[in-house]
Automatic annotation (TrEMBL), chain A:
It holds the Pfam family CbtA. This is Cobalt transporter. The chain crosses the membrane at residues 76-95, 107-123, 143-160, 165-184, 204-223. Keywords: Membrane, Transmembrane, Transmembrane helix. It comes from Thalassorhabdomicrobium marinisediminis.
From TrEMBL, chain B:
This is Cobalt transporter subunit cbtB-like protein. Pfam families: CbtB. InterPro entries: CbtB_put.
Length: 227, 56
């Protein structure tokens, strides 16, 4: 039965990765490439003359298909990776007799994955446009990792814990944000605030769709009848 | 009847394949999201930004 675990994770991960990549090319990558115009100085928003004004408009995907192919490839790798973890968690919950997964339940598992891996870390460290200066990579990765582990455990405890134990999940989810994410002492962004804000919404919304698809597909492959 | 058969076949999963899946998943994610080697970083750059992995 370990084979079912493996194949379900791979099928679901590849499919969800392709869905996520398609959505990223529609919504996220154009904003990212527009951000790069400010990162490289091709466009300047906060000019020396004191005018915070610049043209609006994404430059288009361009002809760098190698780069875009890599983005699709790494989306697949990432979503297969998360698919393995998702199915391990689903199988573990079933093994412990906590629940029996259904395909529709999988959608909720996917949404919880989105909350734990994307939304909770983004609450402290918003998705960054290229060229956004940020605090040192080490502390940020540590906070990011700690936050997603704490949020995952918190959601698990809320879903499967009893009585007061379930409520302790709230503490786990809240704790990283009370500690606070590492930030710089000053603002250094070169891109228009509107573009940075749009990028955050677009990337979180896209991730929400990708994760919901991943959860639903993992559960569907996992529970489907095999002849 | 059908549901019972399914339950039995899925219940065969033990901790070992689950642990194996966790290990496999973490390895893939380390490569795509966490590793700082510059070849990997450049190739995964756009996807890391889109997924909001803290990558540089």
């Amino acid at each position: 039965m370990s084979q079912r675990l493996l194949t379900s994770a791979v099928f679901a991960g590849v499919a969800a990765g392709l869905i996520a990549a398609a959505l990223q090319f529609m919504f996220v990558i154009p904003a990212l490439l527009e951000g790069e115009l400010f990162e490289t100085g091709a466009r300047i928003h906060f000019g020396a003359d004191g005018s915070p004004e610049s043209d609006r408009g994404a430059p288009g995907l361009g002809g760098d298909w190698g780069r875009h192919l890599m983005t699709v490839g790494f989306n697949i790798v990432t979503y297969v990776g998360f698919g393995f973890l998702m199915l391990a968690a689903m199988a573990f919950a079933e093994l412990r007799g906590l629940t029996m997964i259904t395909a529709r339940q999988g959608l909720i598992w996917g949404l919880c994955g989105f909350v734990a891996i994307q939304l909770a870390p983004a609450f402290g460290l918003p998705p960054e446009l290229p060229g956004t200066p940020a605090a040192e990579i080490g502390p940020r990765q540590t906070w990011w990792l700690g936050t997603l582990i704490a949020t995952t455990l918190g959601l698990w405890v809320i879903a499967f814990g009893r009585g007061w134990v379930a409520l302790s999940g709230i503490v786990l989810i809240l704790a990283p944000h009370l500690i606070g994410a590492p930030h710089l002492e000053a603002y250094w962004g070169v891109a228009p605030p509107e573009l940075a804000a749009e990028f955050v919404s677009l990337s979180l919304g896209t991730a929400a769709a990708g994760w919901t698809a991943l959860g639903g597909l993992c559960a569907w492959f996992w529970t489907r009848d095999t002849p | 009847m059908n549901a019972t058969t399914k339950t039995i076949s899925r219940a065969d999963v033990t901790l070992l394949p689950i642990a194996f899946a966790v290990l496999g998943g973490l390895t893939l994610l380390f490569a795509s999201g966490y590793a700082q080697a510059s070849v990997l970083h450049d190739a995964a750059h756009d996807q890391r930004h889109a997924m909001a992995f803290p990558c540089h």
